[in-house]
Amino acid sequence: MKSKNAIYVCGSGGSGKTTFASHNFPNHVSINVDNHYENFLVESGLGLKIDTFNQIQKTKALEYFEESKIIVNELFFDSVNEGKNLIIDTVGRDLEFILKQRKYLHNEGYNTYMIMLYASLETCHNRVSKRNRTYDHQLTKDSWDLSYKNLVDFATEFGDNFLFINTENMDYEVNKLNNFKNTLKILKNYI
User: Fold this and answer.
1) Other CB atoms closer than 10 Å to residue 117's CB: what's the count?
2) N- to C-terminal Cα distance for the chain?
3) What CATH number is associated with residue 113?
4) Res. 101: pLDDT tops 50
5) Nearby residues of 16 by Cβ (< 8 Å), 6 or more positions away
6) Confidence of residue 99 (pLDDT cuts 50, 70, 90)
7) pLDDT of 51
8) Are 30 and 22 in contact (CB under 8 A)?
9) For residue 72, is it within any domain?
10) Computed from CA positions of residues 184, 94, 32, 85, in that sequence, does the dihedral angle turn out positive or negative?
11) Using CA atoms, how far apart are residues 25 and 12, in angstroms rounded to an integer?
12) Would you say residue 133 lies in a domain?
């Protein structure tokens, strides 16, 4: 029987999660709220410059975010039912939710791993400001604080299946996969 793997890629907005996941695990189903959220924002005509939204636009954007969470939740359960490998792109703010979800995955026969990507708050701010989807600095700070507050707990819970990567000095546009080859060799020994 083929093993089923679910890999959590966690870290602050701007830490490089989505780039890392898409370049290193392209054949895994991506469980990422942001992908659907951005589609809603663009298709609605609101655009991706959230930091410039007025209150009415922010309210509508929040509704799209909630709709995106529902879609991604359905994708998660459908993918598990089909036994597909998963890459779960998340900030990692909710320790209890992730541990509960991990237990569910184990009960469904999945091996679970976590890769925590780290960059300084300043680096995360800079990366987010260069994206198509921009949001205010406070949201980046909140994401950063929430991401790393559970670091020790995640490392303890996942044990040998936990990997911490400092992405501070990595240029994703230029180096992409080459920066991760040694790390991935270690990880792929597990998966």
Assistant:
1) 24
2) 14
3) 3.40.50.300
4) yes
5) 117, 119, 127, 167, 170, 172
6) very high
7) 84
8) yes
9) no
10) positive
11) 19
12) yes
pLDDT of residue 32: 94
Note whether residue 68 is domain-resident.
no
Residue with tokens 């993918």: 79
CA distances from 131 to 27, 51, 83, 156, 167 (A): 24, 12, 33, 33, 17
Give me the sign of the Cα torsion angle 179, 117, 104, 35: negative
Using alpha carbons only, give the angle 6, 69, 45 rounded to the nearest 5 degrees.
125
Per-residue pLDDT reduced to its tens digit, 134-146: 777 787 888 888 8
Q: What CA–CA distance (Å, rounded) separates 50 from 143?
A: 15
90 occurs within a structural domain: yes
pLDDT band at 130 (very low <50, low <70, confident <90, very high): confident
Rounded CA-CA distance 107/139 in Å is 35
Domain region containing 93: 4-29+84-190
Residues in the chain, overall count: 191
Q: In a 3-state reduction of DSSP, which class is residue 28?
A: coil
In one-letter notation, the amino acid at residue 55 is Q
**Which strand ranges, in their side-by-side order, compose the sheet holding 162-166?**
29-31, 86-90, 4-10, 110-118, 162-166
Q: Based on the structure, what is the number of domains in the chain? A: 1
